[in-house]
């Protein structure tokens, strides 16, 4: 196979895996919300009014998907105080959770990410994977020294 394959990695909470996958990939609106978040910057806030202006979905559809994605832990809801016409107004904002970032990154093109973002992703993946391997090795009573030797060999 001569085409370049990108190794996509997603860490899912096992008890909600099916609900999360269905909520995101069962709806074009949810995918578009993730793409919008990615375009704004993977760690930046997004606002309901911006989603309604930029995406071709009704306010009701956007709100439904924001609630579902929040409930499943894909995005986090925040409240922030702003000044509008000399009045203090509370506005909901949303930000991708760590889980949400992984899903958004599935939709990203490698060229869309800065070098720093790629380095951060690599380090985060490595840390999570090592934690998972450590836990599994303890559960299976695998000698950690053997795993350490494999690691050293592969890093040469």
Helices, strands, pairings?
Elements: H1 17-25, H2 28-40, E1 46-47, H3 48-54, H4 59-71, E2 75-84, E3 87-96, H5 98-107, H6 115-140, H7 144-155
Antiparallel strand pairs: 1-3, 2-3
Rg from Cα: 19 Å
Question: Could you please say which CATH topology of the largest domain applies here?
Answer: Arc Repressor Mutant, subunit A
State the name of the first-level CATH class of the largest domain.
Mainly Alpha
Structural class: alpha+beta
For the biggest β-sheet, the strand order reads: 1-3-2
Q: Supply the number of structural domains.
A: 2
- The H/E string reads HHEHHEEHHH
The total of beta strands comes to 3
The major sheet is characterized as: 3 strands, antiparallel
Description:
This protein is α+β, with helices and mostly antiparallel strands and 156 residues long. It folds into two domains: 1-110, Winged helix-like DNA-binding domain superfamily/Winged helix DNA-binding domain (Arc Repressor Mutant, subunit A, Orthogonal Bundle); 114-156. The chain has seven helices and three strands; from the N terminus they run ααβααββααα. The chain has a three-stranded antiparallel beta sheet. It is elongated. The two termini are 26 Å apart. The model has no long low-confidence stretch (mean pLDDT 85).
Which descriptors apply to this entry?
Arc Repressor Mutant, subunit A, alpha+beta, elongated, three-stranded antiparallel β-sheet, 7 helices, 2 domains, 156 residues, 3 strands
């Amino acid at each position: 196979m001569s085409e370049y394959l990108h190794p996509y990695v997603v860490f899912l909470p096992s008890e909600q895996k099916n609900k999360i996958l269905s909520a995101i990939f069962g709806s074009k609106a949810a995918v578009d919300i993730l793409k919008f978040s990615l375009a704004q910057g993977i760690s930046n806030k997004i606002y309901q009014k911006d989603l309604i202006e930029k995406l071709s979905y009704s306010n009701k559809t956007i709100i439904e998907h924001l609630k579902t994605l929040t409930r499943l832990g894909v995005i986090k809801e925040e409240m922030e105080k702003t000044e509008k016409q000399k009045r203090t107004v509370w506005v909901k904002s949303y930000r991708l959770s760590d889980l949400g970032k992984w899903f958004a990154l599935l939709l990203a093109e490698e060229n869309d990410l800065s070098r720093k973002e790629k380095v951060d992703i690599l380090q985060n993946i490595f840390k999570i994977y090592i934690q998972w391997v450590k836990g599994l090795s303890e559960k299976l009573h695998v000698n950690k020294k053997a795993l350490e030797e494999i690691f050293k060999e592969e890093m040469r």
